[in-house]
Amino acid sequence: MSTAAPVAAKTVPLLIGGQWIEPAASAWEEVFNPSSGAVIARTPLVGAAEVDAAVRAAAAALPDWSATPVVERARVMFRFRALLEERFEEVATLLTREHGKTLAEARAEVNRGVEMVEFACSIPALITGEILPDIASGVDAECVRHPVGVCVGITPYNFPNMVPLWMFPVAITCGNTFVLKPSEKTPLSAVLLGELLAEAGLPDGVFNLVHGARDCVEALLTHPQVAAISFVGSTPVAKIVYETGTAHGKRVQAAGGAKNHLIIMPDADMDQTVKQLAASAYGCAGQRCMAGSIAVAVGSAGDPLVDGLVNLGTAMQVGASDPALSAAAESIGMGPLIREDHRRRVASYLDIAAEDGAKIALDGRQAAAAQSGDGFVLGPSVVDHVAPTMRVAKEEIFGPVLSVSRVGSLEDALALGDGCEFGNGAVIFTRDGYAAREFKQRFNAGMIGINVGVPAPMAWFPFTGWNRSFFGDLHIQGKEGIQFYTRQKVTLTRWPRTDESHLDPVWRSGR
Ligand code: NAD
């Protein structure tokens, strides 16, 4: 963070009540193009005053928007979806520019986000209530869903497009208004989403955008007019958000970090497994909460697995992913990390692992050294013979470092999951149905893959992290998302027969 605003970089605007505003913030965060290391924008780090203005704008827009028929609210999402499709390449390229993931990864991210908008388009069919006539004699019961009010989204840097789209399309179509606080490291995609929402005809104040870090988040968590908070980010912050938000009477869903195990049984198709493992561990340069982090080789799987990973990792092309900077960007295998300090932090785990007694089978610093330019590139690494007590086995690295642990049996692999504080994803590669079933039933994580390297649920299913990978009850995505953004109202009705003397005689005789 710098306190002096760089003059040349574009200021990232806030969106409050339909107005784009460049605030006079006293602190700023630089936004980098990770492919070149250049500063491309500056994010204002705003505090309580701007948050209050945004929440008030959302609260002011709430009565009209919540009274707008749900089919009309969904129509805005249909138009928003059409714009995302029309501007698909622009959205994906901006994502690559501010985050560093490859264009193929950016396109995949936008597709996952579009699916969330499609899900939101179907909300009129999903939000219907229930009725039971004659729950007691002459009494009818009905249960309908109401919006909760002003909802807040606080999102991480690693999916600047998709994670906001996990939240606001569902919240808004359910009749709520919204304040988004994207990551200060990658705020530009959120600005583009705000522009497209306005173009789609969303009324002013229904979607608002603020930027900042800790102070901004604290102001959102404690604002009396905020009803619900969706958070995605690291576990320590997820815990703070959950505890502070609920202490202030808000409903909170807070998704945190991860340490995902990938179990390789000796009977697995090794060629396919190595490809899927590499895609899982090195996709988005390992900056995914569903990234494979520890490959657990059972029995004889260890040597062929490590050989295959080292060969594949050595051949992987790494470098700049921004097509404006490199003609090779379209074919690049792995892009840079988000920041130089993050690259250093991730690389430091290679020294930590070696000091703890693990073997560095492939060192990503060598691929990085072969690169020209100032991008934040780090090649893929493989760390072999990792024991459960080592820091690389316990801590979320969030970069392209895949640990390999060697165990004797499936039971040993299941025990590693039991000892893990996180519980996002876990995968097994096998041809054995019994092993797969045991794994599915017993592994200590909420999202399971069987011969699927990244078992991230898509829009229609909840994102079901367990343990310290999630704080709250109702998860993001799927029908749970609709439950989170609505509250139920039950009405019991009785219409006793009345004295009919005042009724029209013709109508009365027909009763
Ligand atoms: P982060 O926790 O540093 O930041 C997330 C958000 O919290 C940002 O908007 C940031 O401004 C805000 N924030 C940061 N520190 C704060 C503080 N002390 N108080 C209040 N707010 C604060 O996470 P990140 O580095 O942007 O993203 C990476 C993390 O997100 C990883 O741990 C990854 O596993 C996790 N993640 C989880 C999921 C999931 O679904 N479980 C999905 C994507 C990312």
- Structural category is alpha/beta
**What ions, cofactors and ligands are bound?**
nicotinamide-adenine-dinucleotide
Task: Give the number of helices.
Answer: 18
CATH topology of the largest domain: Aldehyde Dehydrogenase, Chain A, domain 1
What value does the average pLDDT take?
Answer: 96
Strand order of the largest sheet: 15-16-17-14-13-18-19
Q: Which parts are unreliable, with pLDDT below 50 for 5 consecutive residues or more? A: 1-7
Level of helix content?
25-40%
Measured on Cα atoms, how large is the radius of gyration?
A: 25 Å
Write the CATH architecture name of the largest domain: 3-Layer(aba) Sandwich
- Please give the alpha-carbon distance between the first and last residues: 75 Å
CATH superfamily of the largest domain: Aldehyde Dehydrogenase, Chain A, domain 1
Count of extended strands:
21
Principal-axis shape equals globular
